[in-house]
Write a structure and sequence with these properties.
This protein is an all-alpha fold. The chain is built from 4 helices and no strands. Helix 1 packs antiparallel against helix 2, helix 1 packs across helix 4 and helix 3 packs antiparallel against helix 4.
């Protein structure tokens, strides 16, 4: 079971890193929309600031997963619930946008489908 949990964390990290890359693409899309005059500058700047804050959180969250005590959880359900609580606490303690936790939660559910 421990090997599955380690694999789970490894895949979750990849998923979160991919989300960060997707966020970079969104920033570029907003810049392009501003250049094409589809949105105003303040909208573009606000969107960019929010997305950069979310990327910062993801940058901090991925290495934080190394600290998650996988051995403390005996079964799949308690492991998944514990991981969710761990990430939610991390986001709240660092006052990061709640959206990042929601993204992470979706990635957790996606990895559950892969592994279990």
């Amino acid at each position: 079971m421990t090997d599955k949990k380690r694999l789970f964390i490894k895949i979750l990290k990849v998923e979160l890193e991919e989300t960060r890359e997707d966020t970079l693409l969104l920033i570029e899309i907003y810049k392009s929309r501003y250049t094409n005059r589809e949105i105003r500058q303040y909208v573009q700047l606000e969107n960019e600031a929010l997305l950069e804050r979310e990327m910062h959180c993801l940058d901090k969250m991925v290495p934080e997963l190394e600290k998650f005590p996988i051995d403390e959880y005996e079964d799949k359900d308690s492991f998944i619930q514990g991981l969710s609580v761990f990430l939610k606490s991390f986001v709240e303690e660092n006052q990061f946008p709640k959206a990042v936790f929601l993204l992470a939660e979706r990635k957790i559910q996606k990895v559950v489908k892969y592994i279990y």
